[in-house]
Amino acid sequence: MSLPQISTLGSHKRQLAMKFLVLIWAVFLFFGLTASETETYNLIHSTILTKPGCESRCGDLIVPYPFGIGTNCSIGERFNIYCNKSVNPPKGSITEHDHSWIKLISDSTLRTSNLVAKRCSFPDGSWSTTNITSDYSRNFPYTISEVNKFTVIGCGSYAWLTSAAKNRTVSTGCMVFCSKPDEVAAAGDECSGNGCCESSIPQNINYYKTQVDSLTNSGNMSFAPCTYAFVGEENVFKFKGISDLRAIDRFDNSFKDRIEDTVPIVLDWAIGNQSCAQANKTNDFACRYANNTCVDSTREAGGYRCVCKQGYQGNPYLSPGCQDINECNNKEKFPCYGDCVNTIGSYTCECKSGYSGDAMVKDGCRRKPFNVLRLSIGLGLGIFTLLTGLFVLLLMVKQRKLIKLREQFFEQNGGVLLEEKLKTTGRSVMKIFQVEELKEATNNYAEDNILGKGGNGTVYKGTLPDTRLVAIKKSQRLDQGQRDQFINEMVILAQINHKNVVQLLGCCLETDVPMLAYEYVSNDTLYRHIHKTSGKGRLSWDSRLRIAHESAGALAFLHNDARMSVIHRDVKSTNILLDDNYTAKIADFGASRLVPLGHDEVTTLVQGTIGYLDPEYFHTGHLTDKSDVYSFGVVLVELLTGKKTIDPERGAQDTNLATHFLKAKKENRLLEILDQQVVKEATEEQLKATCDMVCRCLNQVGGSRPSMKDVAMELEILRKSSKQHPWISEQNYTEASSLMIESEEQNLYAVPLIANSDTFGEYSSSTMGMNEIMLHVHSPR
């Protein structure tokens, strides 16, 4: 609601009329608005919104500084808001010739009205097309927010959006299909391609161009002759199904007007392109007033914003800055059922005299009990003695409860069963720790002792009384059905003695969640060493082969040589640790499973890490030792390429590293993706043999993969082969490429040119254009 505009009265009369209208409006607000609306009104009118002499409104739009209407009213020219008073009510826009109206300005975003691209067919087979270009690049503060979506409405058509980000052209778009009305998605359904589709917009763009086209060159949809495309705030547009398509008429702009009026575009804004730390060193730092703080923008272009501290409100960009909120005047937001006292930046709430308890909770204050000591001073000593005795008794009771609770946890976590099994086996070196021992070892589980957190628990660094360093893991809570399996696995793992497997030293079962103590491995994970781009500690080819061989040998031992076969189920480079001598250690058995004797597989809920997860296990739920082989194959690809397993920047088809590797092998492009250090140091035979072995490990059919024992043996042979090779020079590059030729019969993955989806994501225009993409999906499904 805005104050009525008065533009035809004289200066004195205008002031009187304004005061009168403000009084009437205030009475209406306080008697007709809700409490939250009244609070908003108080906030707006108790805050200095603009510089002196500047307008704070353009019609219904509130324009707070650093934005401004008119000369010298904003923090800079690019924050000027143009107010068009030729329309009623007046409307604000970013520039004088902008046809989009600003709907709302907040402390980090600006919402403006929409522009819609349109393409309609006519009975004679002709088309009319209106494409849209929205450019905010001249207005430095603005980038198009990621909360927007690109939406297309129609049938048998497609639309795309192009822009630029990180010095390259980016695009996004989607297609809509429907040949009959009953193929259109129902009202309220998601936009999945049947009459309506949507896709995410590229990041960090400040302009875009929208284009609409048809999938076919003949015919038209009698019930949906037009196609519309627009960018708008996510979840604001609600698709109404066939009624929306029937509303789309060649000469009827009601649908277009509805979108432009109700679905805003969200723009992110920030001041300048410096960070808070950089701007604070300059003379024009905007966050220089009281009780506010500076927040760095997340935009690629940089910049910062000013916000009031908690407990304060106001305009942080103008003197006197943010002012203290009187929380006691807002009982709904700051409840207090006692004596409320406002303090600077906060407030206190205490029970009234004669009462005690929590005054912030309704009925939380109770009348204080009568003090027995007032009856007789003579009883004071006796009462003191009694209270002291009760206190000591209470401590004893608490101590006993604590001991019983620990005994309960010990039994609940399977401690009795574990002791029996350890006595039966008779040769385990695993120790059962008391809770105080691990608490002291980790300095009461101090934050600076945390080594890592994961889906299976938190790992702390600890020092035992004998100065041994250990890694102490707080596991997840176990239910009753998992107890026996957990104990069996601990017994098995405690007896595994392999130089390349992290040794389980002991456990503590006296807490609500079990704690395990492993040997401490000091030189970080294989992942960190693989993805170092340069500098000391970067792994050589010989080191990579040795680490791969040691890891494969450890997994082969778990699969074949342990008392019961152990499937790790989460083999990845972050679960391979390196000690000071760069010796590999397989770690983290929180997801592992035992395979009973006489069985080749177990059926489990699918668990693992995206990028490493065996596709056959993912689809069937049948876990075998070949699932570890697949995951280890992905680790080998990491060692060969130095690339991450999941990287959206490689494009939609190559996001998954395993698929990317197999595709490059099939297309004879392996030298393009292999780590150059590996190419320089490895021999010709080593590279060919390693790549062939990786392809066998990544076979979609588990039964066609080699065993971990076979993989370990092949890696051992590769380590013994000769070093160095002569094909580094430019003239030998073509000859070396022939080593990567894929055999005709090997086709482990069929990689489609375009994903089986109605939506295509961001890609570089330097490699594929929109017309090339559309050739693959031109026929309606």
UniProtKB/TrEMBL annotation:
Its main location: membrane. Keywords: ATP-binding, Disulfide bond, EGF-like domain, Kinase, Membrane, Nucleotide-binding, Repeat, Serine/threonine-protein kinase, Signal, Transferase, Transmembrane, Transmembrane helix. It is a single-pass type I membrane protein. One of its GO terms (molecular function) is ATP binding. One of its GO terms (biological process) is cell surface receptor signaling pathway. It catalyses: L-threonyl-[protein] + ATP = O-phospho-L-threonyl-[protein] + ADP + H(+); L-seryl-[protein] + ATP = O-phospho-L-seryl-[protein] + ADP + H(+). Residues 324-366 form the EGF-like domain. PROSITE patterns: ASX_HYDROXYL, EGF_3, EGF_CA, PROTEIN_KINASE_ATP, PROTEIN_KINASE_DOM, PROTEIN_KINASE_ST. It comes from the Eukaryota. Residues 445-728 form the Protein kinase domain. The chain crosses the membrane at residues 375-397. One of its GO terms (cellular component) is plasma membrane. This is EGF-like domain-containing protein. It comes from Helianthus annuus (Common sunflower).
